[in-house]
Amino acid sequence: MEYPKNEYESMTMNERLFASGRMNEFDDAVARRDRGRIVQIYKELAPSTDAEWAADSILSRSP
Q1: Which of 28, 30, 41, 47 has the greatest number of C-beta atoms within 10 Å?
Q2: Domain segments of the chain as ranges
Q3: By three-state DSSP, how is residue 34 classified?
């Protein structure tokens, strides 16, 4: 699912996850260490972010 670019432009990623109703989906992907799903969610909600770097950073800090 793609969202209009300007809809989330001034939001943090946490705000984007909450506003889109995808917080639980994202948290589940992190808990499962599902890098591909994390990257996909980042690309959909924060297309200007380096999704691969963000996923690697998140996974390096999570148990």
Answers
A1: 41
A2: 5-61
A3: coil
